[in-house]
């Protein structure tokens, strides 16, 4: 979820501004939602959803159950089916900004007959913006529309009086938090949530940024209305917007000094990771006095979402426009704990230069770029719900409707901008969340995103303790206002290995896995082979759902993500080039740009391969067996797997991201796989069959594959294997995490079964296990599906 990059940015800013002690000494807990805006209430045409009864949410596919539960014969199943009746999920309501409402998609694909209705009245507030921003024309010349995916919404006009409502505050689960919430609610009455009294300098800047917008909004674009259908969220026909006026921006307007002293300082600050993003509400964007009159300038806005929550949005216009003075737009979502980026000129992301494209490159290519602080983080109000389509997804929809009022934003039709999305981790998840409910999004590039958070944090019932510690640390350090039951899930899981099923159900209810098939926007899924938080299996699940739904989909596996790339130098040319190709083809509308084959991946040597089909066809697997019994004890950390000490030689960020990396273990049962006789590509999920017995309270062992040539664990991945230590003999079969590895003739790998790994480290498991037999099946490519080597 960008946790490593988040901590890296937060840590860098702490060093730069000296906030560490302040955070530790005075960080408070913000639990109240964004209050009602103090600006005057305005009225304009709007629409409102009807309140309807709840219906049970459709269950997810049997994906996790199939991965987690062995069959009656002891073998995990890999077929697609429904979850068993015992695996119940909470009742949940969910809606889509349906393409049917715009007349663009077949009803059978865009709207499910059993889709649940909204139980809360969602009021779309009127569109208003700075008086300098004119409403976009209702009719857009045909030459600015995409010839092969133009949208034609049905337009209506309604008149109704709208009053902004105070959102219902989040319920706190302990008396202490109740008292804190009551105290904060009293202090924040009538305005935005106050910041902790002893908060850091960064949060003081945030507070100042909140107070920098006091002008009443002006109403524009209220005529933008799109019809809705009964079983979908209404397309926001208007949002309340206020321009942010940074209090120190005037310094840049001082003759001579402003141009040659203050503006260069501001430009430098915006090039520093996180620093300029944090200071943006105070210093503003750098002012270019040499732009021709009327050139759109970067600005920040408060955009009010459906429930009154204010979202802090940065709009950075393109550096070139078409003959109509317009350009398509790209939304760039931040990682967990990060504010919206304001690095205007950088070609690559300042923290993840090999993973995420930079704002500067997008603007130079002819795109407006929009970033924002997600709900519950930094300057935005509300409570974080982990990229829930019901909340964060709808926030994006309101941002999209606001963008349609800007005169330099290219439209497909009224209230429908030409628009794509990029972003990594949390910024990847929001793309899937938003595209599932709003089909105005033309293309998305989710990078190192997830499919199922419960499966990520508690795979097969094990506790991902490494990331379960890092992610909450990010939220605490950045003073995020997350849902009050999120942190207890992580803390109880890491400390005691126990989590209430109701809490797991709550986290899953925030997810979008059951709506992936609703996405119609062409999707480029980019996932890291060494990602120990969101492994390849997460993108694989998303890809299969998208392909099953008929959505144009491409998959790229690269050496990166939430992990340390130890086997090759990190080069991001392929990732950045493919991102631009995807946007240029599906958002810019350039048919001459090729998006390449359906699947591209890199192996441990940095060689790139491609296949016209995803997933690739499998050939005869490599099978190896070990029948010599061996007993190993459960010992926390000592002799276990990881972290690989080589992470220390790849820089501070890679060290942080690589903490959860697996490494060769001493306390292990080893299965040596015979050396390859010919060039062999191992692509996919190996399968391990284990025969064992033992005593103790431990619930899992962990399997990994070591490259005998380099001593590196493939993908730095260790996979949890559930066991029952009751003294009886058991046999189970489970898939391991997917890998991409090339074996030259004579090269081999060794499978290790360990009782302790840094990713799943705990101090409450004990006992011993006797491995009586172990068999591994390594997936290979079919002989008629050999990959093509591509240029990196």
Automatic annotation (TrEMBL):
Record key words, sorted: Hydrolase
Annotated protein name in UniProt: Peptidase S15
Biased composition (Basic and acidic residues): 54-65, 80-90
Annotated Pfam families: Peptidase_S15
Compositional bias (Polar residues): 38-52
Ranges for domain Xaa-Pro dipeptidyl-peptidase C-terminal: 580-782
Single GO MF annotation: dipeptidyl-peptidase activity
InterPro entries from the UniProt entry: AB_hydrolase_fold, FrsA_esterase, Xaa-Pro-like_dom, Xaa-Pro_dipept_C
PANTHER family per UniProt: DIENELACTONE HYDROLASE DOMAIN-CONTAINING PROTEIN-RELATED, POLYKETIDE TRANSFERASE AF380
Hydrolase in keyword set: yes
Lineage: Bacteria, Bacillati, Actinomycetota, Actinomycetes, Mycobacteriales
Assigned protein family: Belongs to the AB hydrolase superfamily.
Residues covered by region (Disordered): 34-117
